[in-house]
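Exercise: predict the structure of this protein bound to adenosine-5'-triphosphate.
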Amino acid sequence: MYKAFLIKYAEIAIKGKNRHLFEDALVHQIKIALKSVEGEFQISKEQGRIYIEALSDYDYEETVEQLRHVFGIVGICPVVLVEDEGFEKLCEDVISYLDARYPDKNKTFKVNARRARKDYPMESMEINAELGGRILDAFPQMKVDVHHPDIMVNIEIRSRINIYSEIIPGPGGMPVGTNGKAMLLLSGGIDSPVAGYMIAKRGVKIDATYFHAPPYTSERAKQKVVDLAKIVARYTGPIYLKVVNFTDIQLYIYEKCPHEELTIIMRRYMMRIAEHFAKETGSLGLITGESIGQVASQTMQSLAATNEVCTLPVYRPLIGFDKQEIISVSEKIGTYETSILPYEDCCTIFVAKHPVTKPNLNIIRRSEEKLKEKIDQLVQEAIDSVETIVVEA
Ligand code: ATP
Ligand code: MG
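Solution:
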């Protein structure tokens, strides 16, 4: 029954003279999201509103589902757009809308009219009262409830009149592409996909780096990371995923360094390599799924040691989250089921029984000295042999 959607966005409406940039980015993201939907759409901007109008038959469910993944959208309102042909005609249109949309008339309602166009001959309050009366006449089972109505009948008088009563929540945030780009260190775990989602939600485009260690980590572990990137890409658009072969570096660290320091030293090399790719491809920061105290490599001392090798800012959006809070987000965004599949990622293979929890930076640096003979060459080889996968939803 709907041929159009009114898209509501909050945060981006307050961006002053940059507003049109944000709106354009949102329109762009909506276009990308609707590409895969059967049907032809026209998207237009009008006074702080974005309209999506179907020019052909289209799949309603699929359209809504796609829009629910576009950052920047706060509400998706299926809307009936009518020309202003006088108040009588408006009443007829509203009544036939309600009749079609709500077969069960045993409902309470409230009319909420707004005039964006002040030359309309009636004031909002007048419209509310008069239209409310007409609805009661047409559907005697319906009742008015101004506090908690089942149906909020929104009437917006603009160049066309907007009639809508449903607001489907969008993901909020800002349109991807309005805040630069960052490099996500993506593993097969629960945390890093959530971290990527959270930074992308602030309008940041995401690239990703995954470190694997064949044959210690399987092809399926790698596929799992690709699958996770695919789910995140529903929100972020295509993700350029760098797959780095980390085996030789890991084995070399294993051979030369104290085993209780393995994880920290490995993490430092991961950061160095991810930062290399970040700089090469224009990312302005790194993103990890770390959270204070979650594991030995995420104590304050460990985080400081890992952070020390980076010159770009490292964004850790989950830093203050408990595991359960992270899991809730991962369930909401749809990555959880994939994250808990059992394939090992490279960190879990080389973990020491008793990793240091309070690494001393001087000691770690001294251990890394033991790598100096071959490590630069191994890092260079890992960089040169990187595989880049473009992951699309
Ligand atoms: P996750 O669930 O995201 O794997 P985790 O709790 O297992 O996190 P760690 O293994 O200590 O934590 O990893 C901390 C962060 O380091 C991860 O959130 C991720 O950003 C990054 N990371 C860990 N392993 C890898 C990997 N193999 N490839 C890329 N990034 C990784
Ligand atoms: Mg992990």
